[in-house]
Amino acid sequence: MIDRLIVHATLLTMTDEKGGLLPDGAVAIEGNRILAVGTTQELMERYSARVVHDVAGKAVMPGLVDAHIHTSMALYRGVAQDTHHWLQKGVGPYFSEINEAEAVAGSMLNIVEGLKAGTTTFSDFDNPMPLIAENYRTTGARGRLTATVNQLPPGLHRLKVNEMYPLDESTGRQKLEETLQMLEEWHGKADGRITVMLGPQGPDMVTESLLLEIKSLARTYKTRIHMHVAQGDREINQMERRYGQRTIPWLDSIGYLDEQLVAVHLTEATDEEAALMAKKGAAMIHCPGSIGIIDGMVPPVMAFLEAGGIAGLGSDNAPGNNCNNMFNEMKAAAVFNKIKAKDPTVMPAEKVLRMATIEGARAIGLADEIGSLEPGKKADLIVINTREPGLAPVITAPVSNLVPNLVYAARGHEVEMVIIDGQLVMENRQLLTVDESQVVARAQHLAEQLAARVANRSSN
Amino acid sequence: MIDRLIVHATLLTMTDEKGGLLPDGAVAIEGNRILAVGTTQELMERYSARVVHDVAGKAVMPGLVDAHIHTSMALYRGVAQDTHHWLQKGVGPYFSEINEAEAVAGSMLNIVEGLKAGTTTFSDFDNPMPLIAENYRTTGARGRLTATVNQLPPGLHRLKVNEMYPLDESTGRQKLEETLQMLEEWHGKADGRITVMLGPQGPDMVTESLLLEIKSLARTYKTRIHMHVAQGDREINQMERRYGQRTIPWLDSIGYLDEQLVAVHLTEATDEEAALMAKKGAAMIHCPGSIGIIDGMVPPVMAFLEAGGIAGLGSDNAPGNNCNNMFNEMKAAAVFNKIKAKDPTVMPAEKVLRMATIEGARAIGLADEIGSLEPGKKADLIVINTREPGLAPVITAPVSNLVPNLVYAARGHEVEMVIIDGQLVMENRQLLTVDESQVVARAQHLAEQLAARVANRSSN
After folding, report:
1. Is A287 inside a domain boundary?
2. CB A63 within 8 A of CB A418
3. Phi, psi for residue A10 in degrees, rounded to 5
4. How many separate domains does chain A show?
5. Which end of chain A is less enclosed by CB atoms within 10 A, N or C?
6. Do residues B62 and B415 make contact, with C-beta atoms less than 8 angstroms apart?
7. In terms of Cα–Cα distance, which of A148, A149, A147, A134 is closest to A194?
8. Domain of residue B381, CATH code
9. What CA–CA distance (Å, rounded) separates B384 from B373?
10. A440 part of a folded domain
11. Which of B13-17, B117-121, B167-171, B248-252 has the lowest mean pLDDT?
12. ipTM above 0.85, yes or no
């Protein structure tokens, strides 16, 4: 008697380039792992299960991987759109003003939003990370957690463009301590559902020596380095002032471009720099929604992929994107890149679906555990109602429209059931691990307090 | 005693450039019209109503206007993505093969999809239009209906690029008859909820004399001409062969660019041609989703708007887009144009929200009736749950995040209630006029038959 059997699914296993479509498929789950994947007939003959989910008319696929998100920023969703000054004038006052309780409540809101749209793994870059980690324990979501490390002096509210920013040793030391605490307390915890990466905020915000110390730590703890790279012209300018080189060649010069690096954005990278990163083995996280809205730009992910790189997708942050939903990110990645290339064939649906699942998992170093439906992997999967009017009809021949419609038509609310680490986290769109309405009410309450303080400060 | 009072709403009346935000607002409805708009306190003192909707914590705004949609194409959603040959090889076989029952069932699926995402007015360009009109009668949606008129000979399955297409008088005559029948039978019917425009498919697909006859008819019936314009390089090439001019200068030369013209796409128009159209008073319908996916292009809507033009948004068709959802279209319009301009300030959220409501209504000639919440207008409005995790929190000061979040974060399923022409069409996400699951099941059934015929034909 096994724990759980899902039957009569239109399976997308993500085990091949087309999505691994298996009609009338089944998945057997024992504990927190996938025991078998096959046809319904095969698995029903082989197993009996304590719980059987008959999902006829529905698609089942691996849970989505949000490979870069800042959940602590959710409380100021939508405060800074349509501006040239997103960071400094838009988001800055909230970023400076937010307290720990507000950051943690926002994080919970963002996790709930993501879960309800089929995200099962969140590669979350934040502070205060030890407190945010508790949200992952509570919700049952898979957390790949990165505590922010920088050496920006406390009280520095504005980074000046035309001079080198000051970097402060003791700040860096204190923030690295938080990361070490995270590694000790959380790495591999909750049956391995929660793991930790190391997070220099950007190569311009820490010294070379701290970057190298972090690299050594990543080796010790067998984890990766999650860092914003070439994320803006301010950063490139800073690197040129500090080291006389642009970001990516400089990172190459200090031996930073390898499989340990999970590089986010590359907004200001040239195609050649992106290709260099790919060839050296570093992964790229593409966040099309936030960069499109904040900067009106499309980072060089096509050049990165053409050079053989592994790329995932990230929803980044609510004040920038303004949503944290991987269906949105898949569509944005596919269409923004078509528009950039003036070519409807680039970034086909099958490719972006892989980036939101197995390739995202590879990018953040979790592909042995998640990202596809295969025996032995962790049981992270989602059930999608393809009979929602906007996803219907499902056609299988002469071509299958399932993958194109998941990428170009689905919006996230079609996800009906979420299983993470073998545990039922959402059923019939009801979250089972937390009270959604309480999460939203608390976020609303604290956001009003935060906004009132920001309003008060800006009127002074 | 009035019919209906909506109270405690966060109102977006769309009566000013910022959206006409009114906290704790109310709308009074009598019959099919808005009687009054004001604060909850004002309207509760003034009226008592047979039905009172308390929508505290929710936003209320005019129903969305889908200013260009082909609902008859919904059954082949998602069959032709990521290709250079969308029309000829992708969609063509389905377009040739579909029968009337299938087209009508697809239309119903698309209308249901749109209603559930807050679209209340559909500017629908299709055939067989008299049958599709019945879907609007049944669902309670507002239909602005256009029967396709072209002179392409029957059996012509493929338009050749390098020679003039044949145009056939009797085909044009027969299709114009259908339009005349539509005008007589449907224009102004269902209490004015259903109206009719005239629809030459494109300036390359009808003769000059038929175009001019249609213009005269539009004057007689006091309606507008809904036409694809500069929709592809094939069309421009055809116009140059036929008349020695590109589309828009030629239309100008025959006096076609005026307030009567609702011009769709402008994909291949230059900025100067778009500006010319705007200055002459023709309206533009921008369909960013479908043109982005099908062509990897962003039409010159910015140049059109800068020249003072009135533009609406359209979702076009399911095999191209692949969804028919104005929240998707608003986000696409805002972000695609930022990317095209490499400037995050272009196409701000407030602007695209207007294009999906009042300006879309102006573009299709219905602004006296719909598009904003004002006394005397038809009661077409939607209630949006802003406590969905992806729309929370709502902040009102120091800046309001409601409009940016409706554009950049909402996905359509947050729409809880739809009222059209004073009638409750959806409540608690349940459609009250048609059985959603039957609509989806019928669409699925007929799509399988259609796809089987296409598969059979392509394998022969």
Report:
1. yes
2. yes
3. -85, 100
4. 2
5. C
6. no
7. A134
8. 2.30.40.10
9. 15
10. no
11. B167-171
12. yes
